[in-house]
């Protein structure tokens, strides 16, 4: 063994160090509070500790009618003054009415001014000046908090949209308006609030049923192990039952078609052809024709003949595939630790996802507060220009544009770092894909090395090395990090291109250019096929790396040509393995799902008292079914890797050895009997 693809290994390590540096820089500049907390017009966070807003956790909009949609509100782009408040308004009121009655109704003034700018307490100031300077909102309406922002408290009464059971309100500027004018500013909020309520109920269901979900997943794990053990004895039986079942079903179909064809004999109109009656929307018409059933019978006969011929000519290859499946079950029985290696891969991928997500959030919140001039006059030439709130009052902007204010707009910046935020996000995504593919490659190479040590052990299990899984993991890390990184890099590049194409397709979805859509569709299809092909090549290249320790390109080339020389065996083994493992996943997920259904619906008398009271019984049920499928997939992915490794070793064994004393076969006795070439040479003592 020697180190392979050293240059790529060095580049990979440098990229990881750079990725860590990028995370540190993003951590220094970023501030996730910009996502967690809403920001008022002064750039201050609502609800931030040790500030004047520590008890004011909700953002209030002076004039919500200026906001175009909820998206605008959430992105803090609404062109109106925004203040942090402790609670949302619970009544209709206008500044004009409150000011007029403040002498004999001071309680109304005290309530209203909590939604004015901090420190404002001058009810004698003229209404025109107050509204011009936006010291107070012209009106307040009953609202409720959503996403820490005050939104109108919509409800429907007899099919009519209302706010606090009213259909009209005063806008504080002398007009009476309909509450439907608020709809665009808060479009779809009720639906989202309902979804939030459902989300809380789902969370409650998880909180009281999580241990039963874990028990269901543990049962799925035990069933997966049991299925893998039974495959050693039942792989052939399951496959042949399925094949003969398909043959029997098709045979019944042929008989039924012949019966229908004969039954329609002599019935008026049944001898017409499809061409005679033309196209009919009622397809039952075609079933009244003898020609239709004759065509069905011919098609089914053709399929039946093809299947029988394939079984006749491929019988040995099918037997080899089944023998390899049994051998895979035997190999896992000797190296049981491999079944739990997917946990390592899962943890590595979880770390990659967590680091990518945190870095992406910090990069997205790396901007500095940007303030812009907000003017009530549409002809103000300074409107939407950047400004400095500390020096704004000393400029002549307020003189030229009365009522203009320097308010917080968004987070951004003009520095070199802020200009390249998008490039950093792209680099973050690319390195994330590279690391995830490397974690998967490391798992495949590790498992391949362990199972290869089983196959090439002449006396099984005596010659299997001690701790084969740990030894294989050590070899992969010590000698082949560069090769694994090289294969992961190629795959990551293709995946990044696919992500970019999906992004472009999403952006251009509304375009009417048919050629552009056709070109994008073709590119997406081509790169999807390329990704599938590269995954297949990489998987087999990692097996050859684990066996011989050569570099990635050499291993990929040798694996590809070895598979091409055994292309029929590859196809047969692939389909047989896919079928049996898919059957196993369905059996595990379905079996545990049925058990969970009877349990959570209290249909098992013994456990009826133990079932928790749920809002939606389908929440833990779907979780158990999906989780069981993923658990089974994790175990069966090890089995699939084992079969692929044993198959490549088997092909190499056939080409390198001839069964003589000098070059004995390493395959099992059952495989050797199927080949029927030469007798196994006597095993060495």
Automatic annotation (TrEMBL):
GO cellular-component term (any): plasma membrane
Main location: membrane
Span of the signal peptide: none
Subcellular location: Cell membrane
InterPro entries: Choline_transptr-like
Membrane-spanning intervals of the chain: 7-28, 210-230, 237-255, 293-314, 334-358, 431-458, 479-501, 579-600, 621-641
Keyword Transport: yes
Catalytic activity, reaction form: choline(out) + n H(+)(in) = choline(in) + n H(+)(out)
Bilayer topology term: Multi-pass membrane protein
Keywords: Antiport, Cell membrane, Glycoprotein, Membrane, Transmembrane, Transmembrane helix, Transport
Gene Ontology MF: a single term: antiporter activity
Source organism superkingdom: Eukaryota
Stated role: Choline/H+ antiporter.
Record family assignment: Belongs to the CTL (choline transporter-like) family.
Name used for this protein in its record: Choline transporter-like protein
Natural source organism: Pteruthius melanotis
